[in-house]
């Protein structure tokens, strides 16, 4: 996958389960050049791509210290294509188990501030009140900072 305009990438929205890493100054290309993740799971990476006009407006109204927010980089991996939460949880757990060391390396990679897992059902199925214990334990072992 090549770097893309992330805000307009339709593949990032909709059902499935994704793992995302985010950080100001995070070099996603360097990480990807060293990773053992299969290329087909890399959904997108790059700078968030806010329009320059929006960036300037925020800086003018909120202050220049927020300029760094617009240098944020994200890496998104697709762990499940399923539209069903239970299947997504199962597939995500299998991925976290298989790539535990690599995900931990990602969570500790320079400038990575967050590594999150997000699952979304296709038919507005509400997520279970609790993620399965196995998934929670694996997420903690892998250094994930959030589960949604």
Brief account:
The chain has 148 residues and is α+β, with helices and mostly antiparallel strands. It has helices at residues 28-34, 52-62, 85-98, 100-108, 133-141; strands spanning 16-24, 42-47, 72-80, 114-120, 146-147.
Core attributes:
148 residues, alpha+beta, 5-stranded mixed sheet, 5 helices, 5 strands
CA-based shape: globular
* SS content category: alpha+beta
Q: Residue share in helices?
A: 25-40%
Count of alpha and pi helical runs = 5
Major sheet, described briefly?
Answer: 5 strands, mixed
Oligomer category = single chain
Q: What is the element layout, followed by pairings?
A:
Blueprint (H helix, E strand, L loop, with lengths): L15 E9 L3 H7 L7 E6 L4 H11 L9 E9 L4 H14 L1 H9 L5 E7 L12 H9 L4 E2 L1
Helix pairs in contact: 3-5
Describe the structure in your own words.
With 148 residues, this protein is α+β, with helices and mostly antiparallel strands. It has one domain. It has helices at 28-34, 52-62, 85-98, 100-108, 133-141; strands at 16-24, 42-47, 72-80, 114-120, 146-147. A 5-stranded mixed sheet has the order 2-3-1-4-5. α3 (85-98) packs parallel to α5 (133-141). The longest helix has 14 residues, at 85-98.
